[in-house]
């Protein structure tokens, strides 16, 4: 379903970037991912302000940020930002009309769960690039879906 | 988090299983950092387990009022019981050798002390469950039974179960502590 999935750490460092093998120009998708990060930052700041002065500042906001911006005709970019500032960005084909918003929401939710399971692995150092095969397979299965 | 981790702690004196797994995982990761060679790490984990076992067996016997085992099958039952008591996950006992001196403790589709663990390729020789072997060995040694334990199957290495093979060597008849004649 997805063309590209990016998982970024709290300092915007890439933890895992997977691009569908059908893509001819993968470098464009890297650009899209990194430019999407700016918008994610902006969006999460706004929602922090509206959330008022509670301590965490992020308590009531939805982790799912939705469609980032009405982008090109070719792709749509969705983002999810956890409270630990891990960002998950999903780039999907805009021409695929069968894809519903709820599907995207569920998918990133599952991605978050898979991430939290992966992070339980004692041999994984938090913030380093993800090497776990199970997580790679999971992300690939989403792309291939 | 795992589904098991979500239940609230009702009994304050009990510790969440996920906490144990994470603590043990962090410990192993640290030992790996300190020793580097997986074989050395296995040795350390075994020693760690042994030290747990020699203490735990005392506590186990005191709490359960257990009489002496008359044969090795009873010993197997006790070990099974001890796992239920301390880990809350009971293994199945089976796969007895014809001579009755060797059996398997099996946890189907799980590892009692590790979920989510994935070994990097250079750590494949690491025996994550070695601490359990050490604990059984230590516990048995304190009640004058000498056993050897091997890890026959490891769920974390894509086997269908975690299986420990326990082999009876001999009774330690005259194992008096050093310095006593």
Automatic annotation (TrEMBL), chain A:
Q: Name one GO biological process term.
A: endoplasmic reticulum to Golgi vesicle-mediated transport
The keyword Transport belongs to this UniProt entry's keyword annotation:
yes
**Chief localization:** cytoplasm
Bilayer-spanning residue ranges: none
One Pfam family recorded for the sequence: Sedlin_N
Q: Which protein family is it in?
A: Belongs to the TRAPP small subunits family. Sedlin subfamily.
Q: What is this protein's record name?
A: Trafficking protein particle complex subunit 2-like protein
Source organism: Ramazzottius varieornatus (Water bear)
The top of its lineage is: Eukaryota, Metazoa, Ecdysozoa, Tardigrada, Eutardigrada
Write the gene name. RvY_06902-1
From TrEMBL, chain B:
This protein's GO cellular component annotations are: endoplasmic reticulum; Golgi apparatus; TRAPP complex
Q: What superkingdom does the record give?
A: Eukaryota
Q: What keywords would UniProt list here?
A: Endoplasmic reticulum, ER-Golgi transport, Golgi apparatus, Transport
- UniProt xrefs under InterPro entries: Bet3, NO_sig/Golgi_transp_ligand-bd, TRAPP_component
Pfam families xrefs: TRAPP
Give the record's GO biological process terms. Golgi vesicle transport
Where found, per UniProt? Answer: Endoplasmic reticulum; Golgi apparatus, cis-Golgi network
What the protein does comes down to: May play a role in vesicular transport from endoplasmic reticulum to Golgi.
Kindly state the subunit structure of this protein: Homodimer.
The UniProt entry's sequence similarity note says: Belongs to the TRAPP small subunits family. BET3 subfamily.
* This protein's name: Trafficking protein particle complex subunit
Q: Which organism is the protein's source?
A: Ramazzottius varieornatus (Water bear)
State the encoding gene: RvY_08178-1
């Amino acid at each position: 379903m997805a063309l590209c999935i990016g998982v970024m750490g709290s300092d915007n460092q890439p933890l895992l970037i997977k691009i569908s093998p059908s893509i001819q120009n993968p470098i464009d998708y890297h650009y899209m991912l990194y430019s999407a990060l700016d918008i994610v930052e902006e969006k999460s700041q706004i929602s922090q302000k509206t959330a008022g002065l509670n301590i965490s500042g992020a308590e009531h906001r939805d982790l799912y940020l939705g469609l980032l911006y009405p982008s090109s005709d070719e792709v749509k970019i969705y983002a999810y930002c956890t409270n630990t500032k891990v960002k998950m960005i999903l780039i999907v084909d805009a021409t695929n009309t069968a894809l519903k918003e709820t599907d995207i929401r569920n998918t990133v939710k599952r991605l978050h769960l898979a991430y939290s399971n992966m992070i339980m692995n004692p041999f994984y150092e938090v913030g380093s690039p993800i090497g776990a095969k199970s997580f790679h397979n999971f992300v690939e299965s989403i792309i291939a879906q | 988090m795992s589904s098991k981790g979500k239940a609230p702690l009702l009994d304050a004196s009990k510790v969440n299983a996920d906490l144990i797994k994470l603590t043990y995982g962090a410990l192993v990761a640290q030992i790996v950092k300190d020793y580097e060679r997986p074989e050395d790490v296995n040795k350390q984990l075994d020693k760690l387990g042994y030290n747990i076992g020699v203490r735990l067996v005392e506590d186990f016997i005191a709490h359960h009022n257990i009489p002496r085992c008359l044969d090795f099958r009873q010993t197997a039952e006790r070990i099974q019981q001890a796992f239920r008591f301390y880990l809350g996950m009971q293994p199945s006992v089976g796969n007895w050798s014809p001579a009755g001196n060797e059996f398997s403790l099996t946890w189907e589709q799980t590892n009692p002390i590790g979920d989510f663990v994935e070994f990097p390729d250079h750590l494949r020789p690491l025996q994550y469950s070695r601490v359990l072997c050490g604990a059984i060995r230590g516990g048995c040694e304190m009640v004058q039974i000498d056993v050897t334990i091997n890890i026959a199957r490891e769920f974390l290495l894509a086997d269908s179960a975690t299986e420990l093979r326990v082999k009876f060597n001999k009774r330690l008849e005259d194992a008096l502590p050093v310095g006593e004649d």
